[in-house]
Amino acid sequence: MAKSRSTPFHVPNKKIRPAGWQVFLVGFFLFYMLVPIISTYVFSVATRWDRTILPEGYTLEFYQRAFDASYFTITLRNSLILSLATVLVSLLVIVPTVYWVHTRLAGAKPLLDILMILPFGIPTVVLALALVQVYNFSPLARSPFLLIGAVVIYSMPFMYRPVANAIQAIDAHVMTEAGQSLGANVFQVLSKIIIPNILPGILSGSLLVFATVFAEYTLTSLIVGARFKTFPLLLVEFTRINGNVASAFSVISFTIAWLVSILILWVGSKGQVAKTKAIRTG
C-alpha cells in the first residue's frame, strides 16, 4: 500500500494592515513631537506671530543677529569641547568598568545598576552645589574640569545602559577566553574584540550623552557661570532680550547636535564596514 505524500500547505502572503487606532496613535505621537520643533523653526523666521494663526511675514534677520551676537563662536566652541570631552571620559570610565564587572565581578552588577540610577534622583542644583562645596580648592574650584566631572556623573546613565545592553547581547566570556587563548592580554581583548562587537551600543550612548550635555544649562551656570560660557547660557540670556533670536539659537543648537549625531553614526558605519571587510579577507 503506497504511502500518501503530504503536500506542504502554503499560506498566502497577506499584507497586515494596521488598525485605525494604531494609525491614529502614531499620527498623534508624530504631531505631538513635531509641532514644537516646527513652531520653533517658524518663530525664528517670523516677523510677527501673535495676531494670526500663521506668521504675518518672514525674515532671516534674527539669524543674522544671532550670528553677530557677542560670544557666539566662543560659546559654541565651549559647548562642543564640553560635550566631546564628556563623551570621551564617559567611554574611558564606563566601557572598561562594565566589561570587568560583566566578566569578572558578576556579583557587583546589581550594585552598579543601582549606582547608575542615582544621577536620575539627584537634582542638578544639589549636585552642582555639593561639588562646588567639596572641590573648593585650586585648580578644580569652579573650573571647566570640575564641570566635565559633573556632567559625566549627570549623563553617566545614558552611556551605561546602551553599553551594558550591548555587552549582555554578546558572549563576552567566550570572546575573552578565545582571545586569551591566542595570547592576547586584557587590553587587547577589550580594544580589538569586545569594543568592535559592542560598537552600536557605544554609538548610541555617545549620541545620548552628546545631546544631553550640549543642551545642559544648570550645572554650567552654577559651577562655572560666565567663566566658561556655553551655548545654552547664551540662549537663555537672549530669551530675556528677544524671543525670535532665542528661537534662532535653539534651531542652531538642534542643527549642530543633529549634524554631529550624523557624523558619529557615519564614523561608526565606516568602522563596521572596515570590520566586515577585514573578516572576509581574513
The amount of beta strand, in percent, is under 5%
Shape: globular
Distance between the termini: 56 Å
- Tally of alpha and pi helices: 12
The stretches of 5 or more residues where confidence is low (pLDDT under 50) are none
Global Rg: 25 Å
Total strand count, please? Answer: 0
Mean model confidence by pLDDT:
84
Order of helices and strands: HHHHHHHHHHHH
Structural class, from secondary structure content? mainly alpha
Give the class-level CATH name of the domain at 74-247.
Mainly Alpha
Explain what the structure shows.
The protein is an all-alpha fold and 282 residues long. It has a domain at 74-247: Orthogonal Bundle (MetI-like fold), CATH 1.10.3720. Helices cover 73% and strands 0% of the residues. It contains twelve helices and no strands. The chain has helices at residues 20-43, 61-68, 72-103, 109-121, 124-134, 144-169, 172-181, 186-197, 199-214, 218-223, 231-239, 243-281. α2 (61-68) packs across α12, α3 runs antiparallel to α9 (199-214) and α9 runs antiparallel to α12 (243-281). It is globular.
Which key phrases capture this entry?
282 residues; mainly alpha; MetI-like fold; 12 helices; 73% helix; 0% strand
